[in-house]
Amino acid sequence: MENPIVWQAVSLSLKVALMALANVVVVGLVLARMMARRQFPWKTVLEAFLTLPLVLPPSVIGFLLLVLLGKHGPIGQLAEQLWHRPILFTTAAAVIAATVVAFPLFYQSVRAAFEGVDPRYEQAARILGAGEFKVFFTVTLPLAWPGVLAGLVMAFARALGEFGATLMVAGNIPGVSQTIPLAIYFTAEAGDYTTASFLVVVVSLVCLSIMVWLNCWTRHRVSKWQG
Amino acid sequence: MFRASVYKKLPSFAVDIDVQVANEILVLLGPSGSGKTTFLQCIAGLVRQDGGKIELKDRVLFDSGRGINLSPRERRVGYVFQDYLLFPHMTIWKNVLYGCRGKKQACWDKAQKVLEMVGIAHLKDRFPGQISGGEKQRAALARALMAEPEILLLDEPLSALDPLTRYRLQKELIDLHKKMNIPFILVTHDVREAHLLGHRVITLEKGRITDIRPGRGMSVVKPVEKRPGCFQVSIKEVQEQRLGLTAQQVLIPFLDRGHFTSLEITCHHVPPWLKNELAERKLSCQVDRVDEERMKILIIREQILSGED
Question: What is the predicted ipTM?
Answer without folding.
Answer: 0.82
